[in-house]
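Morning - iron/sulfur cluster inputs below, output right after.
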Amino acid sequence: MAGANTSANTMLLNRGFVREPFLPDPARWNDVYDMLCGHCANKADCGLIEAMLAFAQGRTREWPENAWVTDLGTSATCLSYAPIRGETISRQRLDALAHTPDEALPHVCGGCAAKKGTEASVALHTQRDYRAAVRDQSEFTCHEDPENKRLCGGWCRAVQRKEV
Ligand code: SF4
């Protein structure tokens, strides 16, 4: 992204990956917005969106701090992304989960957010969603389930271990 003031946003991550401001092609803007802002708790009153649009439209030369940046897992993430708080599952379901043997839990899929080395395990917004869901004991479903109903195997085991 030539011309942007990147110094404040550039961050060195593991494996030498450097986060830099991320301005999508105009044709991809809506996709990135849906992926990030569409699931973000800050969406209703976020000033970053207008500030990024101002940059995209040449009204400012400053890319806002803590806005969209490149990501190791997905192509883009937002440093200010905030998970939407989910509803804690019932005590009955928590008790049932606590007593479910490992072999009866949903399997941990190949791209699980809880599995080291997966894209989801290093995507900033996905990790924030995952950790919030474990902390809050709110449902986190497997991305491989086309119906988005099956619980994430990694989440089940983390909640069992009370990783909160
Ligand atoms: S904080 Fe980031 S992801 Fe959330 S609404 Fe604002 S720009 Fe979008």
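Note: The two ends are 38 Å apart (CA to CA).

O.
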